């Protein structure tokens, strides 16, 4: 049986065609942009959030070969999460969730060029040139944040180092101290509003030890004093972030960074 990671490795070939798709169980029609070679049938029409490109979705799935053999399933392992339309999964999946709503169940039948093509996958579990069928269920949809949390300039606190922060929502319990392990959800933005990273994409918080240099200096300082479930905006000057070094294609040299941070767990140091 393939792991979710190996099963959903990327094979990208997009042949776009627009069709009007409707399901016999619903009178609602919607326009969906499915590639040629992908057959889509809704077996249960959901009534929750609509899945769109860029959304992070949580799904259950079972994959079948042409002879009906199951080659992979999430049912025993647990749901699988991915971001639609960014190449984290095979093309048939990236396009096959269009128009689907939470609670819905769908059958996807995809030609080899929308799956694993001439190479196959999984050490022979999926043979070359295999047409694949997936029964999928959409469990949840999470959208990436689009902005820094709103705050009043009068509420901004500036520390001696130049770090600034704003408490958006008060926390509870003991405050974070240097040496504690914390679980933090976060969204990172440039000053022009560009989102460069978010824990939403991974579906789990970042875990690290405060004050030992595992994160940028602005985080090591800015998390101290936060309490469980507290939300802050951290405004971190470049000398407390990445300084004169660019980070990949998204964070330029000398950038001031803004983070929405939410502490969801604190494990005190021994």
Number of β-strand runs = 15
Overall CATH architecture of the largest domain: Roll
Number of helical segments?
Answer: 3
Q: Overall mean pLDDT score?
A: 87
TL;DR?
The chain has 270 residues and is mainly β. It has three helices and 15 strands. It folds into two domains: 4-142, Chitinase A, domain 3; 153-267, Chitinase A, domain 3 (Roll).
Structure description:
The protein is mostly beta strands. The protein is built from 3 helices and 15 strands. It has helices at residues 4-7, 91-96, 217-222, and strands spanning 19-22, 29-32, 38-44, 56-64, 70-73, 80-83, 105-110, 132-142, 157-158, 164-169, 181-190, 195-198, 206-209, 231-236, 257-267. Strands 9, 10, 11, 12, 13, 14 and 15 form a 7-stranded antiparallel sheet that branches. Strands 3, 4, 5, 6, 7 and 8 form a 6-stranded antiparallel sheet that branches. Strands 1-2 form a two-stranded antiparallel sheet. The longest helix has 6 residues, at 91-96.
What secondary-structure arrangement, pairings included, does this model have?
Layout: H1 4-7, E1 19-22, E2 29-32, E3 38-44, E4 56-64, E5 70-73, E6 80-83, H2 91-96, E7 105-110, E8 132-142, E9 157-158, E10 164-169, E11 181-190, E12 195-198, E13 206-209, H3 217-222, E14 231-236, E15 257-267
Antiparallel strand pairs: 1-2, 3-7, 4-5, 4-6, 4-8, 7-8, 9-10, 10-14, 11-12, 11-13, 11-15, 14-15
């Amino acid at each position: 049986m393939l792991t979710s990671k190996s099963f959903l490795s990327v094979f990208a070939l997009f042949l776009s065609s627009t069709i009007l798709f409707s399901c016999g169980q619903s009178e609602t029609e919607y326009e969906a942009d499915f590639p040629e070679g992908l057959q889509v049938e809704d077996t249960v029409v959901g009534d929750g959030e609509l899945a769109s490109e860029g959304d992070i979705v949580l799904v259950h799935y079972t994959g079948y070969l042409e002879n009906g053999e199951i080659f992979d399933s999430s049912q025993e392992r647990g749901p699988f999460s991915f971001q639609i339309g960014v190449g984290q999964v095979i093309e048939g999946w990236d396009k096959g969730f269009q128009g689907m709503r939470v609670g819905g169940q769908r059958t996807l039948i995809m030609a080899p060029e929308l799956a694993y093509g001439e190479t196959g996958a999984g050490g022979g579990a999926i043979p070359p040139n295999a047409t694949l069928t997936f029964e999928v269920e959409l469990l949840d949809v999470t959208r990436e944040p689009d902005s820094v949390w709103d705050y009043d300039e009068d509420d901004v606190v500036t520390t001696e180092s130049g770090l600034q922060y704003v408490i958006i929502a008060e926390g509870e319990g003991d405050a974070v101290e240097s040496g504690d392990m914390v679980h933090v959800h976060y969204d990172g933005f440039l000053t022009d509003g560009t989102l460069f990273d978010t824990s939403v994409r991974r579906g789990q918080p970042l875990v690290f030890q405060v004050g030992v240099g595992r994160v940028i200096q602005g985080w090591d300082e800015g998390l101290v004093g936060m309490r469980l479930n507290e939300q802050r905006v951290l405004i971190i000057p470049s000398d407390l972030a990445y300084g004169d070094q660019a980070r990949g294609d998204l964070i330029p040299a000398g950038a001031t960074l803004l983070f929405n941070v939410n502490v969801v767990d604190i494990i005190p140091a021994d």
